[in-house]
Amino acid sequence: MEKWLIVFKAVILGFIIIWLFDSQLRSESLLFFLLYISCNLTIYLFQKRPVIHIMSMMTIMLIIIGHLFIEQIFILLLPLNLCEWIIKWTERYFPLLLSAIAPLIFIERELQLLYGFISVISMVQIALIDQYLKKEAAWVEKEDEMRETNDRLTKSLLENAEFNKQLEYTIKLEERNRISQEIHDQIGHNMAGALIQMEAAKRLVDKDQTKAKELLQNAIHISSDGIDSIRFTLKNLKPKTEQIGVQRLKLMIDDFVVKQGVTTHFLYKGSIDLISPIQWKIIIENVKESLTNALKYSGATKIHVDIAVLNKLIKVVVKDNGSGSKKFTKGLGISGMEERAATVNGKVIIDGQDGFSVTLLLPII
C-alpha cells in the first residue's frame, strides 16, 4: 500500500511544480524538492522504525521551513506526511484530522480551501490504508495459526499411524506367541506321548505282543487326538467366510465414500453364513459396478446397499436417490453383472422408476 502514498505525494508535488511553473523556479525551490524526495525515499527504503521516525520529523520540519522561507504553497505537502507519521503513534483517526487541519489557521487565505481539501483526502487515505494493513495482518496471523494447526494435526496423524503400525505388529506377535504356545502345550505333548508309546511297543513286540499292541493302540489314540487338536487350532485361526465377505464389502464401500464423497449406507440381515465364497465374489463385484454407475449416470447423493438372506434366495439391492430413467441401454457394466450372476443361476433386475436400483438374486447353494 505504500505505492499509493508515493503516488499521492507525487501528485501533490506535481501540482506544486505546475503552480510554480509560471514563475521562475528558484534554486532554493529545486533544493527543497531534492531534499523532500530524498527524505521520503529514505523512509520507504529503510524500514527500521527509528529511521522512519527521524526522517518523518525531518520531512515535516523541511516542509514548514520551505513554507516560511521559500514558497508558501509547500505547506500543501504537510497533511499527508503529518498523517503518515501520527498514525504510527495512535490508532484513533480524530487526532489525524485534527493534526492535519490545525495549521489551517496559520495559512494564507488563498491556500486554506485547497489545504483543507488535501487534509481531508490525506486523512481518509491514511485511514483506509491503516484498515487494510490491519486486516492484512489479521489474515496473516490467522493463516499462521491455521498452518500451525495443520502441522500439529499432521504430526498427530503421523504419530497415530506409527502407533497403529506398532499396535498391529504387537498384536501379530501376541497371536504368533499364542499359536506357538497352543501347539507346544497340546499338539507337541500328544506327539511326544505317541512317540514314547511306539518306542515302548517296539521294544516289547518280540517279548509281549499283547502289551505291544496295547501300546500301539494308545499311540494311535494319542495321534488321533493330536490331529483333532491341529484341526481345532486351524479352525479357530481361519476367519469365517461371512466375516471375510462382509469386511471386504465394507472396505470397498468405505473406499468409495472417501474417494467420491457420496453418502452410502450398508445393511445386512439374515443368515449371512449361508453365502458361499463364490457368491460373495459376485456380490462384491456387482455392488462395485452398481456404485460406479450410480455415480456416473444417476447424479446420486445417497446410496443404500442392502443384503438380505431369505429362505431360498440371497437378495442384494443397490438403490440411489438419483434422477433415474425409464429407458436405459445395457452397456458392458450391466451385461457383466448379468453374466456373473448367471454363473450361479442368479438374476439381475434393474429399475429406473425412482432413482436407479439394481437387484441381484442368487439361489442359496
Automatic annotation (TrEMBL):
GO terms for cellular component: membrane. Keywords: ATP-binding, Kinase, Membrane, Nucleotide-binding, Phosphoprotein, Transferase, Transmembrane, Transmembrane helix, Two-component regulatory system. It is an enzyme of class 2 (transferase). SUPFAM superfamilies: ATPase domain of HSP90 chaperone/DNA topoisomerase II/histidine kinase. One of its GO terms (molecular function) is phosphorelay sensor kinase activity. Residues 287-363 form the Histidine kinase/HSP90-like ATPase domain. It catalyses: ATP + protein L-histidine = ADP + protein N-phospho-L-histidine. The keyword Ribosomal protein does not apply. InterPro entries: HATPase_C_sf, HATPase_dom, Sensor_HK_TwoCompSys, Sig_transdc_His_kin_sub3_dim/P. It comes from the Bacteria. Pfam families: HATPase_c, HisKA_3. The chain crosses the membrane at residues 6-22, 29-46, 52-78, 90-107. Residues 175-241 form the Signal transduction histidine kinase subgroup 3 dimerisation and phosphoacceptor domain. Its EC number is 2.7.13.3. The keyword Cell membrane does not apply. This is histidine kinase. It comes from Cytobacillus horneckiae.
